[in-house]
Prior knowledge:
mainly alpha, 2 domains, 17 helices, 84% helix
Amino acid sequence: MQKKFITxxxxxxxxxxxxxxxxxxxxxxxxxxxVSAEEYGAYFTLFNFSILFNIxxxxxxxxxxxxxxxxxxxxxxxxxxxxVVFKFLLAIIYLLITFVVGYVVGYDSNRFYMLLFLSIxxxxxxxxxxxxxxxxxLQLFALNSLLSVLDRTLIIVFCAVLxxxxxxxxxxxxxxxxxxxxxxxxxxxxxxxxxVLSKTKQFKFQLDKSFSLLILKQTYPYAILVLAMTxxxxxxxxxxxxxxxxxxxxxxxxxxxxxxMDAATQIGVLFATLLLPMFANMIKNNKKVVDxxxxxxxxxxxxxxxxxxxCFFFSDEIMSSLYKGSTDAAQVLGVLMFxxxxxxxxxxxxxxxxANGSLRTLNKLAIGGMVLNVVLNLxxxxxxxxxxxxxxxxxxxxxxxxxxxxxxxxxxxxxVNYKFIGIIILYVILIIGLLKGIQIYVSVFVVQxxxxxxxSGALGLVMRIINLKKMVQIFTNKEL
Length: 480
């Protein structure tokens, strides 16, 4: 199982590193530089607002389906038609609730128009993720890896034509960016639907009430979990927009830093995509998960800490190189990137608890995190604005992951590896000292950054946080 994890993780990371950085820094960043700060701030706020209630589009169906299919592959044919039809019904409920809350918040007609398309996009994203959960559950990891970048690839093509193709005489507007996303998601959903249909060979567009109630009963714990987590991940921009007089500008500043954290966080998402069906399968067959947990944690910890430390100390240089003119987002970036370390770790331990079915525990933890994050935002935003929101996120994420690790230790009866913990702490201290030394003796930012990343990565291998010898053994021993 470890060999399968490493092989498919390599493919998944390669494809996503090929496509998603260009999407975030080539397309999304360019759009923010082309339009005004107020326009992009409004878009970023509405984008996050559309995500707040997107659990209504899924109710935990995707994670539950991934886990169920990975343990019982015959359920694909039994569940496929009913779930697809049910998701369209959920889309109607989601749109109604999103627009009612938007009206209560006080959005005007222009914001409602953009929100409509962003909400449609959320449905399409949710639909694609559900379809891909069937492919992952069937253990078709290579195919799922290819499909994971399909929608972004299409968006890049459409937006590249709009931004640099000189095909249309009209000036580029923010809604063109939104329309391009909608078209790409529609095309991707049709393609992935066709692939899943070829695996089931039957589909009926007919609502089965008893089946829908069964799905609700099975998935509502996942729904509560995702809803709570979504709020403490996405409420920041909405609160900045509504609480401050310059809310749109502060949301735009937050978006500049958040873009980098969001890009980095995708690494954790990719790990979770592979780990959920693997953990679920191993737990069902009473296999020990400790080795896979340690391996996956080691592989994600080293790059996450390197990225966080680099972004903290090089925040001014990074922000000024990404965005035209001066930016106030450097301080926000330094804080948010340490959130990434906590989030990345959550994608290991939280995924293990999800695969184990420990939903009640996770729900209590997520609801507590949501309340804490909102309270901290209410306290910090009026004084510290975007930076205060970043601090609120950091405190929440760190507490969440610490509690998750404690729960995992108790549930799976893991022994505490004090030697490994000591090595991790020493590693963090050493790379911070390394960076400070590089800054003293090297003056060029690009050289500083590259040296730090390369030496820190090598140090992670030398200190055997990433055990290269064991990874070679995994590949040479077919039984591992």
